[in-house]
Write a structure and sequence with these properties.
It is built from 11 helices and 2 strands, in the order E-E-H-H-H-H-H-H-H-H-H-H-H. It is mainly α and 269 residues long. It folds into 2 domains: 9-50, no CATH class; 73-265, no CATH class. The chain has a two-stranded antiparallel sheet with strand order 1-2. Helix 2 (72-102) runs antiparallel to helix 5, helix 2 runs antiparallel to helix 9 and helix 9 runs antiparallel to helix 10. It is a multi-pass membrane protein. The chain crosses the membrane at residues 74-97, 121-145, 151-173, 185-203, 209-226. This is Transport permease protein.
Length: 269
């Protein structure tokens, strides 16, 4: 709170309160933020010995978001992204590698079918959407989640996040020789995103190197979107930087996605 310049006064207490000792005027207990006016500081910055009776200080604490301090409103929005990431990155990587092992991709490469007609990635996107809906319904009904923002905006930005996760799965399949390698690579990509995204641990408490690494992970930008919409009711006017980064990831990985299946199909297994 002090970092955000919210607290105007702070109380400094001695370590040992069992013994009462005279306190001179230099041993001040109340300290003020620099924004407080000087007359107010002079009126408040006094020693307890100068007061006729102990001051009756009653802190007025107001929790702006999640006032009940429940874990569900904080974790469930991020879990929605985590479930969709698991359903797309892992299954896409395994599915494409399996098709390459069976020789299906080589057969598709010589057929006159268009990319949209093949639709190899559409089932995984639909499956991720179904998982998203199931977790959302469970959060609303079982855990009593009450989103403060727009569910339509949340769903749209989640689809934007899916573009990057599907692209990561395709790129992982392009560098994997078999399904075991694809699974290991998918977990290697997903677990750091879960741990470094701020979903479980605050990014500000991580080492500086880990903070730098977290800035290149797509899930790092989805977590503030999910919590901002669910807890704070934020809109696109506030969340547009994170949405722009996810859109950039989607465009970049989608462009690479057209090349990855071709490279995967031409590999001899």
């Amino acid at each position: 709170m002090q970092r955000r310049r919210v607290v105007l006064l702070r109380l400094r207490l001695p370590l040992d309160l069992r013994h009462t000792q005279p306190i001179d005027r230099e041993n001040r207990l109340l300290r003020s933020d620099h924004r407080t006016d000087a007359p107010d500081v002079d009126a408040l910055d006094v020693a307890p010995a100068d007061l006729p009776e102990p001051p009756n200080l009653v802190p007025d604490v107001e929790i702006l978001y999640n006032p009940d301090l429940k874990s569900a409103p904080v974790m469930i929005p991020g879990l929605l992204g985590m479930v969709t990431m698991l359903a797309t990155t892992l299954l896409v990587a395994l599915g494409i590698v399996r098709e390459r092992e069976y020789g299906t991709l080589e057969q598709l490469a010589v057929t006159p079918l268009r990319l949209f007609e093949v639709g190899k990635l559409l089932p995984y996107i639909v499956l991720a959407g179904v998982d998203f809906v199931l977790v959302l319904v469970a959060g609303l009904t079982v855990f009593g989640l009450e989103p403060a923002g727009s569910l339509a905006l949340f769903t749209g930005l989640t689809l934007l996040f899916l573009l990057s996760t599907v692209g990561l799965g395709v790129l992982g399949s392009a560098v994997s020789e078999n399904q075991q390698q694809a699974m290991q690579l998918a977990f290697f990509v997903m677990f750091p995103q879960i741990l470094m995204s701020g979903l479980i641990f605050p990014i500000s408490s991580m080492p500086r190197v880990i903070q730098w690494i977290s800035t290149v992970l797509p899930f790092t930008y989805f977590v503030p979107i999910a919590r901002g919409i669910s807890l704070k009711g934020q809109g696109l006017d506030v969340l547009w930087p994170q949405a722009a980064v996810l859109a950039g990831y989607g465009v970049l990985l989608t462009r690479r996605r057209h090349r990855a299946p071709a490279a995967a199909a031409g590999r001899v297994t």
